[in-house]
Amino acid sequence: MDTMRIDLHAHSTASDGTDTPAGLVAAAARAGLDVVAITDHDTTAGWAPATDAVPPGLTLVPGAELSTVSIDPETGRQISVHLLAYLFDPTAEAVVVEQTRLRLERRTRLRRMAERMAADGLPIDADEIFGLLPEDSPPGRPHLAQALVRAGLVKSVDEAFADYLSPRRGYYVARRDTPVEEAIDMIAAAGGVTVIAHPFAFSRGATISEDTLADLAARGLTGVEADHPNHDAPTRARTRQLAGELGLLVTGSSDYHGTNKTIALGECTTAPEQLEELVARATGFQVVKG
């Protein structure tokens, strides 16, 4: 049991990864994983094709990464919170309505950013970008980053994010995300469990405070992702300590995006007993065993 390798945060082409859902589960098996979660942004569109392709010996945990926001009580500033939701009922009305809104929000945002770039003389075509996306896929800045790479304006997706897609540039457009408290309630009502992804990844921008994490734990948050490529060793240790104090489960995951990032599947993993508890607390959906 201790040798199980569990990665609970991975993306497919249903959002901003480069592996199809079927390709994702195949890649997970090749990477020697026993369990992988599909957690595309604001969509469950990858669940069915991933389920149909789960190879023998692999367990799939259906999930999603929800775009949520927290308000800093001291400054009033909005802070982006990536909320991993697992094993919820994807047909729950509140979930369907909010995921549909968020996907539309993402499409509108991407088009506005692409049009700003085109108006500034950059060789970026919004229609071309959307033409390369799967139908109803929730587009994100990585898709625009790929277009910048194809146009020869940057050498990598990371460089695009550091330059053209940075909030410091005039091309940036903000999103209207779900209040994190509402998202936690929504997923709980749909029988699912919630985990905050990379909660203290300061390199990614502003993060929630420890006090806010305590408030969310009291609200019904299930866990925190302590082991993540953007968490250094002291941050991982502190996150685990906080989880213990707040009664939260602890996960570890790669945040795999295929070739959009240099991170490999299984780079960070979750302890089997933590996954067992997550599954035990969920009633909205079941894991899929190959």
TrEMBL record:
Domain Polymerase/histidinol phosphatase N-terminal, residue spans: 6-70
Any single Pfam family the record assigns to this protein: PHP
InterPro entries tied to this protein: PHP_dom, PHP_domain, Pol/His_phosphatase_N, Pol/histidinol_Pase-like
Full protein name: PHP domain-containing protein
Organism classification: Bacteria, Bacillati, Actinomycetota, Actinomycetes, Pseudonocardiales
